[in-house]
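To the team - pyridoxal-5'-phosphate complex, inputs and output below.
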Amino acid sequence: MSKRAYNFNPGPAALPLEVLQKAQETFVDYNGIGMSLTEISHRSKEYEALNRETQELMLELLGLSSGYQVLFLGGGASMQFSMIPLNFLKPGKVGSYLVTGSFSEKAYQDAKIVGEAVIAASNKETNWRSLPKAGDIRIDPNSAYVHMTTNNTIEGSQWSDIPETGDIPLIGDMTSGILSRPIDAHKFAMIYAGAQKNLGPAGVTVAVIRDDLLQEEPKHVPVMLRYTTHAKNQSLYNTPPVHSIYVVNLMLKWVKENGGVEEMEKQNVAKTKLLYDVIDASGGFYTGNIAPDSRSIMNVTFRLPSEELEKAFVKESEKNNFVGLAGHRSVGGIRASAYNAVPYEACAALAEFMVDFQKRNG
Ligand code: PLP
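Output:
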């Protein structure tokens, strides 16, 4: 096998080698059944067992035991931007949004198409630099729910404290932060995440929904877009992306075997500290996009003194086995996405490369 790249892709993103190898090993002959999982019915006992086990593992790693349903949905995390208001935004109510980056803004824009949506807090005016503090958040008491993005993938910020929303259901887009650190999942009425960062390959979105949100069937919503449809059918209403879900299962086991979310957080803090320390010690050669109190332990974003130097940085990094370091096309700069599967050594190598690049170009 060729040398593994130092994979800092923002998503689809790195998976642990052990997970890829296990998926490869079982791809042709799944658990000795003489067929691939991709060749059998999603109604088979083998798939049903996998489905159930993956749901249970998801709850366990989130620290939830009962009272929530785990659904595997299609359409990416973006589909949730419209499914949430379609299912939960009743006439006379508003959807409240914490707009802290491009993805939460997209969620807010989609909700406005469906019904009435308002911004409970936003840090857009300060270029997303610092996340709103508790005192900056104004939640309309008439809210059907509050929506937030716990980790802002493009901007590189992360909420350290989850806002209190009282009796109003809190919904969290955790696409780029799920299982990266312990989080009080009970504070959320719904959590969702596209798999392609910390959970596995693209093609499935995991939604964890509290039972009370599933009591009423929204009859005005097409059947496939109702959460109740999927919940009533153990997420087997239609054909699920079985292979993606299988790899999610392997990823969840990998997290568990490697110390769970507590250990993931320790590793992620240590990994990103290597990079933030280089930025902070660079005397302004590297400037972090995000204020220290809002920095993400998943996506590290920074600029160099000029766009030419940024281009040179990316080009040279590629020659040195680093992948995926160019910032999002909407913001430019550099972004190093160090999801759970990115090893410490990759961040150590990147920190070293950054120091060396500055020496030669500073
Ligand atoms: N929300 C967040 C926080 C994301 O990072 C992304 C993708 O990067 C999305 C939503 C959109 O996900 P998808 O491409 O699965 O629709």
